[in-house]
Amino acid sequence: MTRLGLALSSTALALSAIATVAATETPAPTPDRKSPDFATQIRPILSKYCFACHGPDEAKRKAGLRLDTREGAIARNQEGQAAVVPGDIPASMLLNRLTTIDMDERMPPKAEPGPNTAEQALLRQWIATGAPYAEHWAFVAPQRPAKPAVSDEAWARNDLDRHVLASLEAQGIKPQPEATRETLIRRVSLDLTGVPPTLAEIDAFVEDKAADAYERVVDRLLASPRYGERLATPWLDAARYADSHGFQQDDERSMWRWRDWVIEAYNADMPFDRFTLLQTAGDLLPDASPETILATGFHRNHRISAEGGIDAEEFRIEGVFDRAETTATVWLGLTMNCARCHDHKYDPIRQQDFYRFAAYFDSIDESGIRGAERSAAPILRLPSPADAERTTTLAAAVTAAEKELATLKSATPPATKDALAVAQSALAAARKARDAFAEGVPEVMVLKERAKPRETYVLERGAYGHRGARVEAGTPGFLPPLPADAPGNRLALARWLTDPANPLTARVQVNRFWEMLFGAGLVATLENFGSQAEPPSNAALLDWLAVEFREHGWSTKRLLRTIVTSATYRQSTAAPADLIARDPANRLLARGPRFRLTPEMIRDQALAASGLLVERIGGPAIRPYQPASSWDGGPGSGNLNNYTPATGDDLWRRAVYVIWKRTQPPPGMVAFDAPSREFCNVQRLRTNTPLQALTTFNDITTTVAARMLAQRIMGEAATPEERLTLAMRHVVSRRPDAAELGILTAGLKRRLDRYAADPTAAATVLAEGTPPPPHTFPPAELAAYAQTCALILNLDETLTRE
Amino acid sequence: MNPINSFQDQVLRRAFLKRSAGGIGMMALASLLGRNLAAAETISGNERLGLPHYAPKAKRVIFMHMAGAPSHIDLFEHKPQIEKLRGTNLPPSVRNGQRITGFTSGQKTLPVAPAHWPFKLCGPSAMPISNLLPELQKIAGDVAFVRSMHTDAINHDPAMSFLQSGSQLPGRPALGSWLSYGLGTVNADLPAFVVLVSRGAGRPQESPVYDRFWSSGFLPGEHQGTRFRAGMEPVPFLANPTGVAPADRRDQLDDLGTLNRHRLASLHDSDIATRIAQYELAFRMQTSVPELLDLSKEPREVLDLYGLDVQKPGSFAWNCLMARRLAERGVRTIQLSHVGWDHHENVVDQLPRQCAEADRPAAALITDLKQRGLLDDTLVVWGGEFGRTIFTQGGNNGRDHHPRSFTIWMAGAGIKAGAVVGETDDFAYNVVRDPCSVHDLHATILDQLGINHEKLTYLFQGRKFRLTDVSGVPIAGVLA
User: Fold this and answer.
1) Which domain CATH number covers B212?
2) What pLDDT, in 10s, does the model give residues A398-430?
3) Are A580 and A163 in contact (CB under 8 A)?
4) Core-most of A164, A726, B82, B264, by most CB within 10 Å?
């Protein structure tokens, strides 16, 4: 008896029937009840338990049964049986096989877990009501949902709130009141700029009685150049941006002008469709300029090998696939990489679709391998006007020196040996000066098509060297088609990505921004909107945001303003324990989001609170304090070795500029779940580990920040209570309560006693890092304050946005 | 059930997993057990099956990765029958069009070069072991050899990635991360997955191995391998800032804990409780890690077993002794990466130097574990990411990368001592009997730890991923 076929012996059928009867002891479906929503309730169950063998992948489909289409589900086999017989539960083999107690018959096989009773009840209800199919929700373009009715009209500040409140009221839950002004300004400042507010900003907001006080804070933050620096980080993760090439010989590369372009684009609120167009096809525009070509650096951020003995073509193709997969993840939320070796198991992505998509990126004028230079062609050089002038001057100097030498060599009478030597060394020096300057002129790897396009082939089982059918560039067949007259190039792809008919792009983007502000996406899996994705926690809200984003010029600033000015966002994070127990992950949004800061924010916050932060936008990567062992690759591992921190201002610039060596990324960032940037990442996890505690307590950056914060508060106030209150305000934006202040001042007193008794210990504690403390502060007192500030910089509240 | 993990560990973990809301106390405890499942559970909806799946034979793994790929030809492949063909061109029927790397694809000839050193037949199965490995010869009876390993990759980076994570592409969790995720740790004061890297004298200029090879991939970050470096700071940021004594830190932590608990009382956020616990664990690590690295109490005869280099922090010998000390302390996965085997030229000079350094400590580790009874529940694996070619590369006795066949050995818990699995053809080129893939090796390791490799999965991008991807069968011939 095979477990593959639907053909059943009468014995097995009888057994199944018994099992079905046993299982239907849960309430029988009432025929007049409406059918469960296929897209959000039924497809996820079928996808989870059935599609791996009875889904879109034709090659691996078992028993010829296909359950991802209604046609397949109701088709009758040779015995006249069907998986689904609409309206007839006993005749539907699907339920029999999922619920039978006969383990030879039961699906899924191999004792894999099957649907639970709630899921079984949904399936029964669905079959009883006619088993209607619908397209996967994410593959149907979002429409503006109707404005929901709510009873608490006063609470909702905008339509976003109405969508949240409608779902809360349906469950009888009340939202939380607005957070305190201190909490709110810290929350929104960190969220939008990555830097906490200053005391003056806090005071101004707390005292501002105007109705739009908060909105004006938001507008100020969105206009701050810090906004672009903050928004850039998630995009750099997605774009796998790094300052080194990756692989074994992990040499430094020079892509920072592209990183600066991203920051500038966010600050200028470049519409997302334009942002997409430039990065995907900025080189192909009729009016292409260095600026639009620079944007295509997005697709050259992947790793490039220089390993000896590799097959360059194999690695070139790997880079092409990386671009296709990254585009599918970042714009479409599709796991298209699954279709590299076979048809997708869950989504209607054919293997051909993957190669057609990859074909858009296959004709770049590149080799797949790099040499000793910092960049691999195609390259865009970006000299400033001053750079260009200097380059010309230095080139002219070389020419002059060459001419001089040539003249001497052909002179009659012959020039002296000494004269020749002088001219030769002058030429060498001129060349050296020219080359050294050229090394410093920014250049970026970009996209450029070859004169003759490559032919793209399917690779059988995804294996290099196993060519299958030839394919032309195109988009996946199950998504809206390209216009008939669209060119077969990246320009068409870019326009298709942001076409109003595209069901995915806008939803995928707003969902990522939502996660940035609420700690979890409305669709929990930011990287996957396919049939295996959990349905959105609030589908109407997701669609409303997507339509708003698209219809208001794809303005990111407007979208973020809508979200952060909502009553939903402004809620307090404190909530009754029973609400937290009922909804630990806050999917209902009945309270404010509370979650750990990014490592970038943790660093920048310490620098800002202590007054160390040096703000200068853009430029080559910086080297902050980091353990010397951070780069211990040794010989053969490339030119980033023996990590040496910078001196001066570059120690104190924002985290977004910290040099990123892919094979050994900054240890303090990795401890807080930053990705390696070796490949596209759109969702950072938020773990809580002992290595994080070691990082924030022992990194020299914290030590110096704690000392500088101590100096700052000692200069700003006189009593311990006033000073420690200020320290708390600089770091977490609020005043400590009496109990907290009591603990802090008692601790300070103990440390004052300790360091007064041991001046050597005080001097040692103050000695680490630059700049050294001025002599105006008594060392014992400064050390005691510094150690107390260090613990404030480690409070859970400090590491969290509340 | 589970005879090995402590009852307490199991009960606590199961109890935790059953609680959807994750009560504060349990959450903190779960973190101490090396797991913070809240994020994974609520975000991805992973359902974890009870682990181990069946009674494990091994509690832990020591994986000695010989990075760069040792020459199986010279160390384990005794082929006297082709000695007469030395220097002649490799018969094309042997290679049969299989790809070779860019190092040798341009060569006019591929001259056959059987092993350059004599062998001794060792152990109950008369396994040929090169005289370059005299210490391994002595313990051959404790070891099982697999001569029929093969891999899919021909370059180091993808091949090492494959060996460590079951995938040539970056982004998949390493073996040790899977074990940390699946089995947790039994020592709350040390990470569950520790990595030690050393550089051999065979080819000092060779590229090292990278953090990615012990990355937790899509698994939560606490499962990533922690590399202990040689020297003053084995873990980044382990040491207090200059001048901050342990008592000073304790004093800070006490205040920090009081303030955090104060906050917890008003916010009810269990993450605060977890953070308090993690700061305490960090403090304990500041003691437990230096204690681990302090060899002053090791008896003379044990140090002598590992050889002179054992006193040199960061040497392979020091790392091998450290592996035993980590095993004693209950660390789940101990990975040693020993660089220096990539002999593209001058095997005759480089391989003896590399072996002279690497042979004794590896054998000493087996002996040391055995003497202490630790070999009974510790699985030890030794091997490179691929083999090397029978034919010469270049003009100076080099050997190129060879993915079609190579040899590894295993010892300890559940392994049939003295077994030899598989066979290659006359040129040690293709496997002719019992081929074993990297997935098979991984399946074997998981099996010894009581894990069905098909069932330790993690839902990511809508798909259940596993260490062995879509294949793998435990290697029956090495199982006791």
Assistant:
1) 3.40.720
2) 999 999 999 988 888 888 888 889 999 999 999
3) no
4) A164
